[in-house]
Structure prediction request, 246 residues.
Amino acid sequence: MRLTTVPSSDARVAVIGVPDVPAQMGGSKQFVQNINLKLLPITEGINADGRAAKWLKYDANLHTNKLRFIIYHAAGAQIEIMTMVETYRS
Amino acid sequence: MQIMPIRTWAEFRDTCITRKNLDIQYYETEKSYEIFGAEAGAFIWSLSMTKTSPPNADQVEFDSMRENFNGKTSQIDSDGAQMSRTKVAPSGWNFNLRGVEFTTSVPGSVVNKDAYNVDMSDATLTLYNENGDVVTNPVTASSLRSTSTSWAERCA
Prediction:
């Protein structure tokens, strides 16, 4: 995750894997939680060097390779963000 | 590992195929064939064969044989030990770094394009108020407290 400027107010990030499948059924994995963009150097952003242990096949109903990036921010805060994900495709 | 250049196709064929029966790897450029024979992990015999038009006798012979090349390389070294060759993805897959941009509190700010600058539709942006309810247009900036974007890779 990369930013152009450090937010002046709290902006906390969470990344949830397979968010449409409940945790008790193996989904809704918290890959990133409660990382405050305001406290990170602008040159670093967030690097989460995770690896999927197996092929995350696309499923139109269960969305088994879906990622959800959530930013909890001050009212109306406009923060320009780029997310990047390394994948291997068949 | 030592690179051993060979100057002619006849010499390469006699050394690497006829006498040593090595696995042959090659790749093709616009102007040449770059051909290699690996010998038990110790030597790599190499030949750069310039293309001619029309193809000379060497190229004709190479063409007749190359369907047998670029096979699996030996996984056994000169000591007879199994070599480690870990792959991070199955053969035929490719690495892909994807970026999705957005601006918090700004509806429709997702930038999600393919390598040809064509918009992709598999990323969505959703805005929420402080109660966690989805906020749709018209929005007022003061009501926006969190932003999420989601995408799922649609590959076979």
Remarks:
- The interface with chain B takes residues 11, 19, 56, 58, 63-90 of chain A (CB under 8 Å).
- Chain A has a mean pLDDT of 88.
- Residues 9 and 75 of chain A are 10 Å apart (CA to CA).
